[in-house]
Amino acid sequence: MAFPSWFSFSLVWVFCKALLLVVAQQNDQSTMLALINELSISGWNSSTDYCSWAGVTCTKSMVESIDLSNHKLKGNVTLISQLKALKWLDLSKNNLQGPIPSAFGSLSELEFLDLSFNNFGSAIPSTLGNLRNLRSLNLSMNGLIAEIPDEFRRLKSLMHFQIFGNNLNGSIPFWIGNLTNLRVFTAYENKLGGKIPDNLGSVAELELLNLHSNQLEGIIPESIFSLGKLEVLVLTMNNLNGNLPFSIGKCKGLSSFRVGNNRLIGSIPTSIGNISSLTYFEADNNSLSGEIVPEVAQCTNLTLLNLANNGFTGIIPPALGDLMNLQELILSGNSLFGDIPKSLFRSKNLSKIHLSINRFNGTIPEDICTTPRLQFLLLDQNSIHGEIPRGIGNCVKLLELQLGSNYLTGNIPHEIGQIKSLQIALNLSFNHLHGTLPSELGKLDKLVSLDVSNNQLSGSIPSALKGLMSLIEVNFSNNLLTGQVPIFTPFQKSPNSSFAGNKGLCGDPLSYSCGKSVGPGRETYRHKVSYKIILAVIGSGLTVFIMVTVVVLLFMMRERQEKASKAAGIAEDGIVDPPMIIAGNVFVENLKQAIDFDAVVKASLKDSNKLNGGTFSTIYKAVMPSGLILSVKRLKSMDRAIVHYQNKMIRELERLGRLCHDNLMTPIGFVIYDDVALLLHPYLPNGTLAELLHDSIAKPEFKPDWSTRLSIAIGVAEGLAFLHHVAIIHLDISSGNVFLDATYKPLVGEIEISKLLDPSRGTASISAVAGSFGYIPPEYAYTMQMTAPGNVYSYGVVLLEILTTRLPVDEDFGEGIDLVKWVHNAPARGETPEQILDARLSTVSFAWRKQMLAVLKVALLCTETTPAKRPKLKKVVEMLQEIKES
Ligand SMILES: *[C@@H]1O[C@H](CO)[C@@H](O)[C@H](O)[C@H]1NC(C)=O
Ligand SMILES: *[C@@H]1O[C@H](CO)[C@@H](O)[C@H](O)[C@H]1NC(C)=O
Ligand SMILES: *[C@@H]1O[C@H](CO)[C@@H](O)[C@H](O)[C@H]1NC(C)=O
Ligand SMILES: *[C@@H]1O[C@H](CO)[C@@H](O)[C@H](O)[C@H]1NC(C)=O
Ligand SMILES: *[C@@H]1O[C@H](CO)[C@@H](O)[C@H](O)[C@H]1NC(C)=O
Ligand SMILES: *[C@@H]1O[C@H](CO)[C@@H](O)[C@H](O)[C@H]1NC(C)=O
Ligand SMILES: *[C@@H]1O[C@H](CO)[C@@H](O)[C@H](O)[C@H]1NC(C)=O
Ligand SMILES: *[C@@H]1O[C@H](CO)[C@@H](O)[C@H](O)[C@H]1NC(C)=O
Ligand SMILES: *[C@@H]1O[C@H](CO)[C@@H](O)[C@H](O)[C@H]1NC(C)=O
Questions:
Q1: Under a CB-based contact definition with an 8 Å cutoff, are residues 212 and 235 in contact?
Q2: Which of 28, 287, 566, 810 has the greatest number of beta carbons closer than 10 A?
Q3: What fold characterizes domain 19-168?
């Protein structure tokens, strides 16, 4: 009896299911077609089967997974919620906006949902709590606000839950402790407050908990460690207080423990010795106290120990020397005392010893650096006595040596000169050192900052110190030094306070002269430099400059002769009589009133207005009666042959004046008198990029700052990309032609030369080499023509200068090697990017270092030998902007 009815029910059921499938299939077809219209995805073609589209997989014609990560998607993705069989949806790294579609809550099969790295805003829709099968949910890096929805307590299958980088507030829900399958929970960089729920410990599988940069309060619950699966715990930058729980010792698998920048108190639990996997222990900037327990030395895998800025006392346990994997030992800013244990220097991998600002009162061990990996030895502001050991010369990898403000006695060992790698700083100030300055210090040709002030050093400053070719900061003050300050730019450019307090010292930059030999000193130096520059730039921008000057002046001579025949009697030297202005124009309408041509000319006749003097052109600062300040570039007469280019030149200048881009220094006008052309530009108070990078002693207030440098790099690329867009090839890209305004916005200059000398326009027969030495692309040697990829190469050199703070050509690199070759050959020499990048920037933060490494990649591309392999400038701008935003 029941049989038939069961049978018919069964039939109906099968039929219904089939029907459902058909319907569903049709739905997927129409949904997918509708999605093409909405999202226009490359690789999705309506005339082919949607199951074959890029990123789509199906089971029985039902769409089961969609991976559209990194597709620049912008549209409305709500339609996807109609794909009922969907198990996997990855829309990460797109430009999706607005609220997360709440309709996604109806995707009941969904196991993997990744919406991270988009611009989703508003609150997280509570409907997502219906996704019972969800194992992985990633909503990180959006603009999500409000609280984590309470409905998520139903996501019992969740294994990975990532919501970092949003603006979520409220507290971490208590029910997280009931998601028993959870392995990964990251909610860092939000505005979460309240306490860490103390039932998190019942999440038996939890391996990674990262809650840094929130506003969490209260204690680190003991229970977190109770089940012992935790591998990574990051709670940095919160307001957590209380002790480090003893139960931490239960987490044998804990490898990374980071709780810096909180308000933790108490001591390090001895149970730390039980955490055999510990590699990274960071608890800096808290109020921890007590001694550094010797149990730490049992964590044989420990790589970094950072307990800086706490209240630790006692000695460094000598057993720490047994930690053969230790790379960084950072204990600065505590009250530690005693000796620096010899055993530490046995640690083969140690690259940083940072013990500054403590009370260490022993000596520096003689056999320091028996295993020379050490890059940073920072022992300043302690009470260390005794002599600087000669063994210091074995620290051949050292980048920075800080021994200032101690009680060191004896001589400066000449072995310091063996530390050729010293780069960031050598600081021996505020000690009791005596004797003479060893001339071997001059071998430290990478050193940027040298401070030996406030000791009892005597004798003269050895002229061998001229070997300190990278020097930017120097301080010899308050010693017993005598004799003349050697003639060496970094010395003369230093403030006289760098030499003050030495009764016997004389000469520039001090105000006491040394008698007869003083006068010519500085001049000799200047002379040498300009000689060197001329040599370095031979066949280069200057040649271009000569050509322009020739072109410009030739026709002016003609004009002048015409004028002269009309109004005879203008004095040849042109100083007594005000020179006759032949032509002049201001292209910018609202500046016309403010610019007075006579004042421009007058300013350009006064040496005291000179900003910058080259052999072939001079730049003057000109203050107008209106108060406006101009930069006036004077092109000097070179030749008296006659060429008819005046009108053409003026037309070109006017056209350039109309080019409008934030990062281009376009002429705002010109004045022509006698045989001189003056080009007018806005006055930029911050000089050039070259000065900023290589001359920063002139601007001691400007600290190296990576963000500024990156913005400058992007600005220059944007300016050049615009030039290429309007089909202008720059003929002389160099850091010296990048000018900086008051906010350090870069403006690419010398574009008029590029225009006036564009060979295709027949302004001059240019076979001269374009570009400055070190910036000239290799192909130029045989093509003799500047091209867009050639510009990219020169720009790449500027990028390398920005990254390395090194000149494009430098004897340092070796015979025939310029900056480009030096950087490209680094891997072959076995050098790491760290040794290439300016360590003053790359060692500041991981974020900076990461960006610098990424920019280095771009610079390497730009300076490829094969022009076709170099990216377009537009692409360069995109890449750099992406790096900046990362
Ligand atoms: C789509 O596929 C058809 C047939 O394979 C082809 O003719 C057409 O060019 C493709 N359309 C696009 C936009 O790729
Ligand atoms: C997206 O499309 C759905 C219908 O598919 C519509 O209800 C919703 O309002 C749209 N959202 C936006 C932000 O346009
Ligand atoms: C989002 O999180 C999931 C789960 O942890 C992970 O597999 C995925 O790679 C993450 N997405 C991105 C773009 O990092
Ligand atoms: C959380 O953010 C939402 C939206 O911005 C706001 O309305 C709410 O007051 C905030 N709650 C707390 C506790 O700050
Ligand atoms: C967590 O689960 C336990 C037992 O499974 C239950 O008693 C408790 O109410 C749950 N807590 C929350 C906040 O859901
Ligand atoms: C130390 O932590 C406090 C509070 O978290 C913070 O204000 C301060 O800037 C931190 N100092 C350093 C050097 O990080
Ligand atoms: C951890 O170490 C402490 C002291 O070092 C010891 O007393 C304790 O038994 C150890 N605990 C475990 C779980 O191994
Ligand atoms: C220490 O590190 C090594 C290499 O990473 C690893 O193989 C080993 O398992 C670690 N030891 C412990 C106790 O975790
Ligand atoms: C170092 O300082 C500690 C604590 O102040 C003191 O006990 C010890 O005698 C000092 N050692 C030396 C060598 O001065």
A1: yes
A2: 28
A3: 3.80.10
Is the Cα dihedral 619, 620, 621, 622 positive or negative? negative
CA 706 to ligand 6 center in whole angstroms: 22
Give the Cα-Cα-Cα angle 829, 831, 837 (nearest 5 degrees): 130
Mutate to test the pocket of ligand 7, among 252, 271, 295 (most ligand atoms within 8 A of CB): 271
Residue 443 CA to residue 737 CA, distance in Å, equals 32
| Cβ contacts of 275 within 8 Å, gap of 6 or more | 248, 249, 251, 252, 254, 257, 299
Pocket test for ligand 5, best of 153, 178, 180 (most atoms within 8 A of CB): 178
Residues 199 and 221: their CA atoms lie apart, in Å, by: 8
> Is 574 exposed, middle or buried (CB count within 10 Å of its CB: 0-12, 13-18, 19+)?
middle
Which ligand does the CA of 309 lie closest to?
A: 6
| Distance from residue 153's CA to the centre of ligand 5 (Å) | 9
Nearest CA, atom 3, ligand 2: 78
In whole numbers, what is the pLDDT of the chain averaged over residues? 83
* 323 Cα: distance to centroid of ligand 8 (angstroms): 13
pTM over cut 0.85: no
Render pLDDT for 469-490 as a digit per residue (tens, 0 to 9).
878 789 999 999 999 999 988 8
Q: What are the residue boundaries of the structural domains of the chain, listed by start? A: 19-168, 581-885
Contacts (Cβ under 8 Å, ≥6 apart) of 636? 549, 553, 616, 617, 618, 676
pLDDT band at 762 (very low <50, low <70, confident <90, very high): very low
Confidence of residue 530 (pLDDT cuts 50, 70, 90): very low
44 lines ligand 3 (CB under 6 A): no
Cis amide leading into 389 (omega within 30) = no
> Ligand 9 atom 6: the closest Cα is on which residue?
338
The number of residues in the chain equals 886
Token code pair at residue 385: 């006595």
227, 270, 274, best to mutate for ligand 7 pocket (most atoms within 8 Å of CB): 274
CB 855 within 8 A of CB 799: yes
How far is the C-alpha of 409 from the C-alpha of 420, rounded, in Å?
23
Least confident of 406-415, 564-573, 725-734: 564-573
Domain covering 581-885: architecture: Orthogonal Bundle (1.10)
Count of C-beta atoms within a 10 Å radius of residue 575: 9
Cβ(120)–Cβ(93) under 8 Å? no
Q: Which residue's CA is minimally distant from atom 1 of ligand 4?
A: 146
Atom of ligand 6 nearest to the CA of 237: 5
DSSP bridge partners of 65: 57, 88
Helix (H) or strand (E) holding 521: helix 519-536
Query: Using CA atoms, how far apart are residues 509 and 109, in angstroms rounded to an integer?
Result: 78
AA identity, residue 777: P
H helix runs in 159-234, sequence order: none
CB atoms within 10 A of CB 885: 6
Angstrom distance (rounded) from CA 726 to CA 346: 62
Contact 864, 874 (CB under 8 A): no
- Those residues whose C-beta lies under 8 Å from the C-beta of residue 657, and which sit 6 or more positions away, are 587, 588, 666, 667, 668, 669
- Say how far apart CA 884 and CA 714 lie, in whole Å: 9
User: Which position has the token pair 């340092």?
Assistant: 812
Question: Ligand 8 centroid vs 298 CA: distance in angstroms?
Answer: 13
732 is catalytic: yes
Alpha carbon dihedral 546, 547, 552, 558, in 10-degree steps, equals 100
Nearest Cα neighbor of 471 from 525, 424, 429 is: 424
- Is 619's pLDDT higher than 70? yes
CA dist., res. 827 & res. 147, Å (int): 49
